[in-house]
Amino acid sequence: MVVILVYVDDLLITGSSSQMIQEAKATLHKNFKMKDLGSLKYFLGIKVLKSKEGILLNQRKYALQLISEVGLSGAKVASTPLEFNQKLTSVEYDQHIGNTTDSADTELEDITAYQRLIGKLLYLTITRHDICFSVQVLSQFMQHPKTSHWEAALRIVKYVKNSPGLGVLLKRETGPLELTG
């Protein structure tokens, strides 16, 4: 079996045997102008490392770029993605219960920076499953983010800074390839 993944003008080809992969590549070369870049190292910002244990996927370069973009290169790292027992509420909830006690936790004037940061963190969750829950929680506040949401998002970046090369290991299995959903 040969699997071909197409993304715009990039192709990934893999399969159960080298011979089948070579045959598929030869067929594609006959019909299309293409350049073989060899073994996969990066794809869509995801680094691919092969070892005896399996394939490690990480976004170290992307994570370091994100840390730099938000100006946290010199910041202390966080040990957890969210503060323990932190209560994040929406503007609507605060209005509903009449909560006006925390005047420092106001709605952000420019929400695009928050939305952009959450989008980048969502992309990082491809290989950073340890931040999935925290990013999902913060993504609920995209329409009306508050100062507390922005600070919580920055905390996730500080947490990522602790180990930017962390990723997902796809363990090598012996036996037939199975696709489950």
Automatic annotation (TrEMBL):
Highest rank taxon of the organism: Eukaryota
InterPro entries, alphabetized: DNA/RNA_pol_sf, RVT_2
Species this protein is from: Solanum chacoense (Chaco potato)
Classification via Pfam families: RVT_2
Protein name: Putative ovule protein
Signal sequence range: none
Domain spans labelled Reverse transcriptase Ty1/copia-type: 2-82
PANTHER family: CCHC-TYPE DOMAIN-CONTAINING PROTEIN, GAG-POL-RELATED RETROTRANSPOSON
